[in-house]
Amino acid sequence: MRKSGMFLILLLCMGYSACNIQPSGNSMPDRYYDYNGPKPKNIIIMIADGCGYAQIQAADFYSGSPQVYESWMVRYGMSTFPSGGSYLPAESWSDFNHVLSGPTDSAAAATAMSTGVKTTLGTIGQLGSRRLNHLMTAAQLEGYATGVVTSVQWSHATPAGFVAHNSSRKNYGAIALEMLESNMDVIIGCGHPLYDNDGNPVSSGSEEYQYVGGESAWNHLLDDSDGIYDQWTLVETTTAFQSIADGSVSAPERLLGIPRVYKTLQHERSGTSSVVNPGDNTTGDTFNGDVPALSLLAQAAIEVLDQNDSGFVLMIEGGAVDWAGHDNNSVRNIEEELSFNTTVEAVISWVEANSSWDETLLIVTADHESGYLTGSSVDTGSTGPWASVVDNGSGNLPGMDWHSSGHTNQLVPFFAKGIGAAQFSLYTDQADPQHGHYIDNTDIGLVVKDLMDN
Ligand SMILES: [Zn+2]
C-alpha cells in the first residue's frame, strides 16, 4: 500500500516538472499546469509600465480606434501585488480608496513576471538574500538569444528585474555592471552619461555615469580592444539603429544600445504644454532630435536576436507611461502610450512578415497602474467615483481625472497571441466583478519557463 502511494507521487512529479522546485512559503505558486505543446521559437513580452485599463482607453479615444491587441482571444486581468500582499476583488469595487493601498513597484513586479516568484518592494531578482531564477537565464540554457529594450534607463527597475539581482533597484551602478557581465545578447535603453534629457551634450564635468555602471565601465565600453566588455557593440545614433533595423548593415552579435539622451527617449524633454496637439506629439513640445523611437529600438533588437536559429526571448518596456502617470500629466501619458502602441504594431508586423503566430508568442501587458486614472465626473455628470475615461473624439484630450501620484493595486490588462498563449487560460482561476477572470503576474514567469523547456 505504502509502496504504490510512493509510486503515485513519483508519477505525479514526472508529469509536473514544478516538483523539482519545492514550494516553500506563500510566495511560491500553488498551481501549475504542465504544457505539452510545441515549443515556441520566439517569445516577446511587452510591458507598458504604469498602464491600467484607463490609460489604454485614453490613448484609444485620442487616436480614434482601439488597439488590435484588445481584441485578441487571450485577454484577461492580471493581479500585481508584491510578496505578502493580496488583491481583493469585491473590496476593490466597493471602496474607491481600497486599491490605493498595497500596490507593487516596477522592481517587485518585473521580478515576479521574470522569475515566477513575488518579492518585496524595490527588490530586483531576489527574495531576501535568495537569488531567483530569471526566465532570461532559463531561456539562455535552452539556446534562446535574449534581450531587453526600454524607453527609460536600461538599468532601471523593469529591465533590471528581468536580468539582475540586487537588494535595491536604486543601486544602478551595480545593476548595470551585472547586466553588462550577463549573457544577454541585447540591452537597449537610455541613461547616456554625456547627454541631457533634451538630447544635448552636457558640459564637461556634468557627466552622469551611474546608469551605465560608472565612468570606468563607460571607458571600457568605448575601448573595443582592452578585453573588458569588448563583447558588446555599442550603438548610439538613430542612423546606426536604423541601419541595423532595416538590414543595411549586418547586425552585431551582441548589441548594447544607448541613445544619446539621459533618462528617457522623450518624456523628460523640456516643454510644459498641457494643451493637446493632434498627432503622436500630443503636447507639441519639440521632440528630441537625434533620438530613435522605441519602435525602431525594438526592430533593431529583433534583427540582432533573430540571427539565432534557436529563436529568442525579448522584453520590451514602454517605461515612461508610468512617469507621466506619477506626474498626472494626461497629454504625455497618452503620448507615451501611443509610442508603446506603435511599437506593438511594429512587432506584430515583424511576426506576420518574418515569423508566424505558429512559432512566436507575443504578450502585451503592464506591471501596475500609476496615477489612479478614471474618467472626469465633470464630463460625465456621473456621481460615481469609477467613471470611465470620456471620449471627446480623436485628436482631442479625453475626459481624464487622476486620483494618486503613486501606484495602485488595481488589476492591469493582459493580452497574449500566438503559440502557447492559450496556456494562460489555465491560470485564470479568480474573477473580478469588473474585469472578469484574471491571472497573477507570477503566472507569466511560470508559463514562459514551462513553454521553453518542452
Ligand atoms: Zn512608478
List keywords for this structure.
454 residues; Alkaline Phosphatase, subunit A; two-stranded antiparallel ribbon; 14 helices; 16% strand; binds zinc ion
Helices and strands in order, then pairings?
Elements: H1 2-15, E1 42-48, H2 53-63, E2 74-79, H3 89-94, H4 106-115, E3 126-127, E4 130-131, H5 135-141, E5 145-153, H6 157-163, H7 172-180, E6 186-190, H8 215-222, E7 233-235, H9 238-245, E8 255-257, H10 294-305, E9 312-318, H11 321-326, H12 330-354, E10 360-366, E11 369-370, E12 373-374, H13 377-380, E13 401-402, E14 407-408, E15 412-418, E16 430-432, E17 436-440, H14 442-452
Parallel strand pairs: 1-9, 1-10, 2-17, 5-6, 5-9, 6-8, 7-8
Antiparallel strand pairs: 2-15, 3-4, 10-15, 11-14, 12-13, 16-17
Bound molecules: zinc ion (ZN).
Q: Tell me the CATH topology.
A: Alkaline Phosphatase, subunit A
Structural class category:
alpha/beta
- The CATH architecture name reads 3-Layer(aba) Sandwich
Unreliable segments (pLDDT under 50, ≥5 consecutive)?
Answer: 1-28
Determine the strand fraction and express it as a percent band.
Answer: 15-25%
Report Rg.
Answer: 22 Å
- Largest sheet strand order: 7-8-6-5-9-1-10-15-2-17-16
CATH class: Alpha Beta
Name of the CATH superfamily: Alkaline Phosphatase, subunit A
Report how far apart the termini are: 33 Å
What's the mean pLDDT score? 92
Domain count, please report it.
1
Shape: globular
Largest sheet: 11 strands, mixed
The molecules bound to the chains, other than polymers, are:
zinc ion
Total DSSP helices: 14
Helix content: 25-40%
How many beta strands in the DSSP annotation?
17
